[in-house]
Amino acid sequence: MSADQNCIFCKIVQGQIPAKKIYEDEDFIAFHDIHPRAPVHLLIIPKLHIESLQHVDASHRELLGKMLVLAPKLAAENGAADGFKTLINTGPAGGQEVYHLHVHILGGKASA
Ligand code: AMP
Ligand code: ZN
Q1: How much is the pTM?
Q2: Which one of 26, 32, 44, 81 has the minimum C-beta count within 10 Å?
Q3: For each of the chain's 112 residues, which pLDDT tens digit applies?
Q4: Which atom of ligand 1 is nearest to the CA of 37?
């Protein structure tokens, strides 16, 4: 796993800064967004430091597939069983703030 020393999400992966973690396996962790924009606002991140969706290639196919398969499971387990939005902000024009690939899961009643 190639961690980036300046990356806040790599620091969460390595336990160097705290997060409200809800899930972890060999390839991913998921935690509550620190500034929730919906009643349920989760982030799923690969442990591997991938800057953004603009930095993926065919070698990441399986990882990306697994990440999306996790989304409904974690949504259901964390209060968004009746539906949710998924969001991946990519690059400056895509509003990306943290340059470590992550999927937002937004759910609960006011998930707009
Ligand atoms: P974006 O890169 O625009 O998709 O958004 C990054 C998201 O990460 C924002 O929703 C932030 O609130 C969230 N975030 C930033 N730092 C932390 C942190 N230490 N723990 C949890 N969420 C964070
Ligand atoms: Zn990182």
Answers
A1: 0.95
A2: 26
A3: 567 889 999 999 999 999 999 999 999 999 999 999 999 999 999 999 999 999 999 999 999 999 999 999 999 999 999 999 999 999 999 999 999 999 999 999 754 5
A4: 10
Question: What CATH code is carried by the domain that includes residue 57?
Answer: 3.30.428.10
Cβ–Cβ under 8 Å, residues 15 and 36: no
Q: What are phi and psi of 45, to 5 degrees?
A: -130, 145
Distance of CA 30 to CAs 9, 10, 37, 92, Å? 10, 12, 16, 23
How many separate domains does the chain show? 1
Asked, for residue 22, whether it belongs to a domain, the answer is yes
Residue 94, domain member (yes or no): no
- In testing the pocket of ligand 1, which one of 14, 40, 85, 97 has its CB within 8 Å of the most ligand atoms? 97
Instruction: Catalytic residue, from 41, 49, 100, 102: name it.
Output: 102
41: annotated active-site residue: no
